[in-house]
Amino acid sequence: MGLVGPNGSGKSTILALIVGLLRPSSGEIKIFGKRRSTEADFREIRGRVGLLFQDSDAQLFCPTVAEDVAFGPLNLGASPAQVREIVANTLQSLGLAGYENRITYRLSGGEKRLVALATVLAMQPEVLLLDEPTAGLDEEATERVIEVLARLPLAMLLISHQRDILDRLVERTYRLAKGRLCPLRSSPTQTARQ
Tell me, what CATH number does 63's domain have? Predict the structure, then answer.
């Protein structure tokens, strides 16, 4: 599903609410068939839902690429051998093999974006929440990210101002404006699948 709307309309806030980084001032959050309100409720969600932040620098905090990608799987209890395999496979899938020992803060903006995506995919989530996943990427890196996302067998909620990317990746698009979600037309992806 795609989500569009004006800047400041609350698109990123919705993603933060879904994973419990923010709490609603009213209403409730129901995910995977269960109402979520406590920190324990959201801990389970964070193991099943991967969130790619709009700002890669907010997501990357370890000295090297391998350490950043390994952080999530290690914290979920994967063995060191499993983590090495996850890191290698994830980086390979994004065209980042050989980046393992690169210093994260020295990467270009596009490279940081791809490494941030790798940190999310390394967690092997069931659902992806993607906040402008191609922001700051050049044409080649954008195409690489689109190809990776298109082949993933995962549910996705994708925020983007780039309609051509939404048309390639999502089946339905909703617009958020003035606190309301309104369905937009089906994308060519959905039409082609019907």
Answer: 3.40.50.300
